[in-house]
Write a structure and sequence with these properties.
Elements: E1 9-15, E2 21-27, E3 31-36, E4 40-47, E5 50-58, E6 64-70, E7 80-85, E8 90-94, E9 100-104, E10 111-116, E11 122-126, E12 130-134, E13 140-144, E14 150-155, E15 161-165, E16 169-174, E17 177-183, E18 189-195, E19 199-204, E20 208-213, E21 218-223, E22 229-234, E23 240-244, E24 248-253, E25 256-262, E26 267-272, E27 278-282, E28 286-291, H1 300-317, E29 319-320, E30 323-324, E31 344-349, E32 352-359, E33 364-371, E34 383-384, E35 387-388, E36 391-395, E37 404-408, H2 414-424, H3 432-443, H4 502-512, H5 521-534, H6 545-553, H7 564-573, H8 577-583, H9 587-597, H10 604-617, H11 624-629, H12 631-639, H13 647-667, H14 670-681, H15 690-706, H16 710-715, H17 718-726, H18 731-744
Antiparallel strand pairs: 1-28, 2-3, 3-4, 4-5, 6-7, 7-8, 8-9, 10-11, 11-12, 12-13, 14-15, 15-16, 16-17, 18-19, 19-20, 20-21, 22-23, 23-24, 24-25, 26-27, 27-28, 29-30, 31-32, 32-33, 34-35, 36-37
Helix pairs in contact: 2-3, 4-5, 4-7, 7-10, 10-13, 12-13, 12-14, 13-14, 13-15, 14-15, 15-18, 17-18
Length: about 750
């Protein structure tokens, strides 16, 4: 079968709302209705290749979040609409009138979705945790069963109502009777939609989209979004579309993301037109129509205007060193020669800030890498590893490398700071002058205020003391005698150090704190205090063994289905030196927890959070001997998930192997290196996600580079892995493939 290469492109934009477009529906064959935070419902009629505003409906007293089409009937020959909003009301409209037919009151909180039954009944869901089935005359029947806000609903062909909730379940209703419940996602079920002739789709705050049979059997999981997925839609062609807070509408075919349509904001809702065109609702107040039919593509002028709005949003959000990226000079600034070798300059490339260094020898600007953020970006955070600094800069040296923290105190000699930082980060000393210039520029200091101590500097790796011009930022010339490795060997460990979800962790712990294993109110207060302390990377450990024992003796014994917030808590906790010291003495307890948490059938969240917790154990020396001695058991535990369809699981395992590679190379242990090499090999090949493939290739390349397993690597035909990677259209995969090819030779 020939590959389906259809791609969606912009057809037109529906401009008229004054705030977020929160919901939409398709009316008949070619009319669109949109609901907005501006309090209105608007109807758009197709005219040629565009959609023109036909009617504005005003009746809600607050923002409108959902709208559904009522097909024509004897009572409504032209059909109608039903809308729901923050004002808790459900309003019924006729298509041929701007006045409400009826206002249905009964919900206590915001109405989140409205759907029409096959017999014309109206169903509404609400944050008040109920579903209402509205009868003629305005009376309603309350359907109760969910334990949290009900966020979405869909009607199946056999007139069964399916609802999704913040309680993470999907429930079935026949008439007013609850019939079945699915443990559907690891977080809020936010969107539901029919997948014609196959089943239905669900979208979740856990960043996934799932396909279910009508009976409730999970058929597919689609992973690719990096934030909450608010909406999902399916079409007879087999295409699936999903909208997310990450600003993308993703198109899926056969469970594979084949296209990502970037928007100037959150994609709240989306629907397919019968002809296959796609309509999206965005937080910038605009609805957009996308098509695969080239005869309906938007003009180049409209496409340019849309792309400009996407770029403008990125620029508005991004800063570096407290300066908006939009205010940085463009690439034209590089036309002016530098004044001295190593002088640095930050310019704007598209919507990113990129650092360049002047190369006096070749008389051009060398690209150093993207600058991620500066001292004003991290909400005023100026601490690192518990130490307070005047500045803490975040800099991304190159693709594939983690963001690095550069701390600095005003008045310190920037040359000394650069020397120490480069050694600690295992970076070439050729970066020295760029780092010095970066510090001076972003702190407003003058270079002549400090003494450059080149003659006093001693490089423990080379024994030299002279400044060596950087050479790694330029591609090697075709006639060069040496090859500059770009991505291997990996010299430092990776960590999952995100701490922004501590409130969410405590909320889940509170929700699950029931039954015979429930913690006392005093114990929950201690847990809350620990999470608050861990929220900041600058906290000083003040924990007692009794605090940790709440986990080992209570939380670790919770039911498997409720363990994921415990594991996320553990992921952050093991980064703390005092906690690491305690758990290094409780290694059997730690390993037994992981084993029980991921026993089949293991909840996806348990698996990837267990892997992340193990990855973070590599941070502290007290865990190192145990991690190396137990590597066979630990790797075997997670190897069963190497081909998991869930990206987060594969990512956790890939980072675990990469950390193991760094450690076993340092231990000079050939058998251990072979074991990690073999495990990483299983993760190479055609990957839906380039990030996972890159991590696996970086693990393999680092091990081969060390030399101990090079001959075995050749026997394993890793050369073919390198050759395949070199052909990739993704630049960093091609680059690391070239790196691997070089070290194999």
């Amino acid at each position: 079968m020939a590959e389906d290469k259809r791609e969606y492109k912009l057809r037109c934009q529906l401009i008229g709302h004054e705030d977020d477009v929160r919901g939409l529906c398709i009316v008949g064959e070619s009319t669109i209705a949109t609901a907005s935070r501006d309090g209105t419902v608007r109807v758009w009629n197709e005219k040629d290749q565009r959609f023109d505003l036909a009617t504005t409906l005003r009746g809600h007293s607050s923002f409108v979040g959902c709208v559904a089409w009522i097909p024509p009937s004897d009572e409504m020959p032209a059909g109608g609409l039903v809308s729901g909003g923050m004002d808790t009301n459900v309003i019924v409209w006729k298509m041929d009138s701007t006045e409400p037919v009826s206002v249905l009151r009964g919900h206590d909180l915001q109405v989140t979705s409205v759907v029409i039954g096959n017999g014309g009944e109206i169903f509404s869901t609400s944050v008040d945790s109920t579903v209402r089935r509205w009868k003629k005359g305005g009376a309603s029947e309350v359907l109760k069963g969910h334990r949290a806000p009900v966020q979405a609903a869909v009607i199946l062909p056999d007139d069964v109502l399916v609802t999704g909730s913040t309680d993470t379940t999907i429930k079935y209703w026949k008439g007013s009777m609850f019939t079945k419940s699915l443990d559907a996602h690891t977080d809020t079920v936010r969107g539901l939609a029919l997948m014609p002739n196959l089943g239905f789709l669900s979208a979740s705050h856990d960043c996934t989209v799932k396909l279910w049979s009508y009976a409730g059997e999970q058929l597919l999981e689609m992973v690719g979004h990096t934030a909450i997925v608010y909406s999902v839609a399916g079409h007879l062609s087999g295409d699936v579309a999903s909208g997310s807070d990450d600003g993308y509408c993703k198109i899926w075919r056969g469970g594979v993301c084949i296209q990502s349509l970037e928007h100037p904001g959150c994609v709240w809702d989306l629907q397919f037109l019968p002809n296959g065109d796609l309509v999206t609702a965005c937080s910038d107040g605009v609805a957009r129509v996308w098509t695969v039919d080239s005869s309906r593509y938007a003009s180049s002028e409209e496409v340019a205007a849309f792309e400009a709005s996407v770029s403008a949003r990125k620029l508005q959000k991004k800063t570096v060193g407290g300066v908006k990226v939009s205010e940085l000079p463009g690439l034209e600034a590089l036309q002016t020669p530098g004044r001295s070798d190593g002088q640095s300059k930050i310019v704007r490339e598209g919507d990113t800030a990129v650092a360049y260094s002047w190369n006096m020898k070749e008389y051009n600007w060398d690209k150093v890498g993207e600058v991620v953020e500066g001292p004003e970006d991290a909400l005023g955070a100026k601490t690192l590893n518990g130490i307070t600094y005047d500045y803490v800069f975040d800099v991304n040296i190159e693709d594939g490398e983690p963001t690095r923290k550069l701390p600095y105190n005003r008045g310190d000699n920037p040359y000394d700071t650069a020397d120490r930082w480069l050694l600690n980060e295992n970076l070439p000393m050729g970066y020295r002058q760029q780092i010095v210039d970066f510090i001076l520029r972003n702190t407003g200091q003058q270079a002549n205020s400090f003494m450059q101590l080149d003659d006093c500097f001693y490089d423990p790796y080379t024994g030299g003391n002279a400044y060596v011009p950087r050479q790694t930022s330029r591609p090697a010339s075709k006639t060069a005698s040496t090859y500059n490795l770009k991505h291997i060997p990996k010299t430092g460990i990776t960590l999952f150090d995100t701490r922004t979800q501590t409130d969410g962790i405590f909320k889940k712990l509170t929700e699950f704190n029931t039954g015979s294993v429930a913690l006392s109110s005093e114990e929950m207060e201690r847990i809350q205090g620990m999470l608050q302390a861990l929220k900041s990377t600058s906290h000083q450990s003040v924990f007692a063994d009794a605090d940790f024992e709440i986990l080992t003796k209570k939380l670790f014994t919770w039911p498997v289905a409720n363990l994921f917030p415990v594991l996320d808590f553990l992921r952050i906790l093991v980064l703390d030196p005092q906690a690491a010291n305690y758990f290094s003495r409780q290694k059997d307890v730690l390993l037994n927890l992981v084993k029980s948490a991921i026993q089949s059938p293991a909840p996806n969240a348990n698996v990837f959070l267990s892997a992340r917790a193990m990855v973070n154990c590599f941070r502290h020396e007290c865990f190192q001997n145990w991690l190396l001695d137990s590597r066979s058991e630990i790797i075997d535990i997670f190897s069963q998930f190497s081909t998991s369809p869930v990206k987060n699981i594969r990512s956790g395992y890939a980072h675990l192997l990469l950390n193991y590679a760094v450690r076993v190379i340092g231990a000079n242990d050939e058998n251990a290196q072979l074991q990690v090499l073999s495990a990483a090999m299983e993760m190479t090949g055609p990957q839906e996600d380039d990030d996972i493939n890159f991590l696996a290739l970086q693990t393999i390349g680092s091990l081969v580079h060390s030399g101990l397993v090079k001959s075995v690597a050749k026997d394993l035909d890793i050369q073919s892995v390198a050759d395949t990677a070199k052909k990739s259209k993704v630049s960093r995969i091609a680059e690391i493939g070239a790196d691997l090819d070089y070290v194999l030779k």
